[in-house]
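Reply to dn_fold:

You asked what the input looked like. This is it:
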Amino acid sequence: MAKTQDPKSVTKRETTEIEITKSLGAFDGVTGFEDADSQSFATPFLRILQPNSPQLMDDSESYIEGSKPGFFFNNVTNEVYGKEIVVIPFKFERLFVEWKPDRGGFVALHDVEDGERLSNPTSRFGERIGKNNENSFQETHTFYFLISEREEEGPIIFPLSSTGIKHSRKWMSMAKMLRLPDGGPAALFSSEYTMTTLLNENEQGRWYQIGNKAALGVTRKNWISEDQLEAVRQAIKMFSREKLRESFEKSADF
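and this is what came back:
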């Protein structure tokens, strides 16, 4: 008599990519995401880990294995990318981000004119204080990127404030001077850029940024491909000031 196999001992066979592709094809394009709107997703921020970041502390709930000071990381997936990353910047905005005192929470985004009208300058670089409250108005240079060779993952936001602003200005000046082979002005998204973090030091401490006193940690790599250009088109369609506001609201740890 044949021995009956215990169902509990049967190992579940993993479905192959070919099999799952064929199976899903039977659903005629139905994915389950049809009723999800922009507020259903978190658009990540690209951040730079600093020597005191909780992601580096193995006793912190924010700890990320393999993280090191100066590494770029994704604040939604907690993936670390190392000190160098290749990106395609497809949009740039200069804004003022209004925070409650002591970064007590995000309040609003303001264009430059309104941000300056509602606040007064302080001695801290890039920061202003509200005329009618104690809120902080932080000048923020905001880049919208696609990560090269990972374009399918969608946009990621890279805000620069304080000491990062001077490096942003240098980058934007470099990109603005770029010319196409026919001599015409190049779009911001026409090139890939290699972005590297560099160590900064002064009497206040040590930190990493995309530049220091000696150099800008951004270099142009090459023109983007046709496939990358199509990814840029799709990314541009996704973004608006409202989408950026939602991303700041959802990223309380920014």
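The two ends are 66 Å apart (CA to CA).
Hope that clears it up.
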